[in-house]
Amino acid sequence: MLKSIHHVAIICSDYARSKAFYTEVLGLKVIHEAYREARDSWKLDLEVSPGVQIELFSFPSPPPRVSRPEAQGLRHIAFAVDDIDAAVTRITSHGVACEPIRVDEYTGKRFTFFADPDDQPIELYES
After folding, report:
1. What is the Cα–Cα distance from 107 to 88, expressed in whole angstroms?
2. What number is the average pLDDT over the span 84-108?
3. Which pLDDT value is given to residue 69?
């Protein structure tokens, strides 16, 4: 029934800052950007890989989401990377702090976490 993940939606507190983070730091490609006047809201469609997108939204005064301590619900987004060392170097070169790289005890794959401008956790997982 399910084929793949189509998109992940993220609501940000500062549209310009988050747009720069997802396009410049993470290097995602802009597919479409629209200002929705009736909602005083921006919607930015970003390509992660063919067929997989992030929808970045802005809304006036969105309430913060609990990130720590961990709450119920969706926890984080994880991106597969071929070279985690190169990805961490790119991200930290933009002033973004990454946790130390760890090894998944079940798969033996390396991974790390960092946060977007709204402190939402993002994982890089070496494939």
Report:
1. 20
2. 96
3. 78
Among residues 126, 113, 116, the alpha carbon closest in space to that of 46 is found at: 116
Distance CA 28, CA 103 (A): 26
For every residue of the chain, DSSP letters joined together read ------EEEEEES-HHHHHHIIIIIS-PEEEEEEEEGGGTEEEEEEEEETTEEEEEEE-SSPPPPP-SS--SS---EEEEES-HHHHHHHHHHTT--BPPPEE-TTT--EEEEEE-TT--EEEEEE-
pTM for the complete prediction? 0.89
Q: Which amino acid is at 112?
A: T
Q: Which residues pair with 9 in a beta bridge?
A: 55
